[in-house]
């Protein structure tokens, strides 16, 4: 295995571990939107790792679907609604949670299997992630208001990196990175960073709102 592919596998394991650990942590906070979404990321990265190690196509198909789910709906929509628990005190019922995930899964099926959306799909992903980035700017503002300057700064760094990854995902190829191993290493590491910081920033804002 080439060094860059080994590093990609390590980045995959990093995202797998962080999404699993912090997904469970959010479930313990009874935030099922964020908890389950991070576990979807865990499912995606575990299957990606199997594909990278074996070349098996079924794990790749599962990972591809989960990736489309998270990029199109999971993080931009479900992630925003989950974070609104501490910015807007939004706590949907379990039934609403189920309906949100079901609707997002149906929407993802259209994104993945419909030829009609293939052309505008990359632009849709960027649009959705940009909307999420705008909300994260507001989230950082709320952290500043709560006196959490360090978390606010880290959130801004994370959203800038995440937006950059989203913008170049389907539109730019790093020179010499024909198999996109370098890009995906950067992307997986960025997402792992954001998952970890999102949990601690959420906790900081939660404590501030309680106080």
UniProtKB/TrEMBL annotation:
Keywords: Membrane, Transmembrane, Transmembrane helix. The chain crosses the membrane at residues 6-24, 36-62, 68-86, 98-116, 122-141, 153-174, 180-202. This is Uncharacterized protein. It comes from Telluria mixta.
């Amino acid at each position: 295995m080439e060094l860059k592919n080994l590093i990609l596998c390590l980045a995959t394991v990093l995202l797998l571990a962080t999404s699993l650990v912090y997904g469970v942590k959010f479930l313990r906070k009874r935030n099922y939107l964020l908890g389950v979404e991070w576990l979807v990321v865990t499912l995606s990265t575990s299957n990606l790792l199997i594909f990278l190690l074996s070349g098996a196509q079924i794990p790749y198909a599962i990972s591809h679907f989960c990736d489309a789910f998270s990029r199109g709906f999971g993080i931009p929509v479900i992630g925003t609604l989950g974070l609104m628990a501490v910015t807007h005190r939004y706590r949907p019922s379990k039934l609403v949670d189920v309906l949100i995930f079901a609707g997002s899964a149906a929407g993802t099926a259209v994104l993945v299997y419909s030829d009609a959306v293939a052309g505008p799909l990359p632009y849709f992903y960027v649009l959705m992630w940009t909307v999420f980035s705008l909300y994260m700017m507001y989230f950082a503002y709320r952290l500043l208001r709560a006196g959490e300057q360090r978390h606010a700064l880290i959130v801004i760094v994370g959203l800038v990196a995440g937006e950059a990854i989203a913008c170049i995902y389907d539109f730019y190829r790093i020179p010499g990175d024909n198999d996109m191993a370098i890009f995906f290493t950067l992307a997986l590491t960025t997402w792992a960073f954001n998952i970890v910081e999102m949990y601690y920033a959420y906790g900081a804002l939660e404590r501030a709102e309680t106080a």
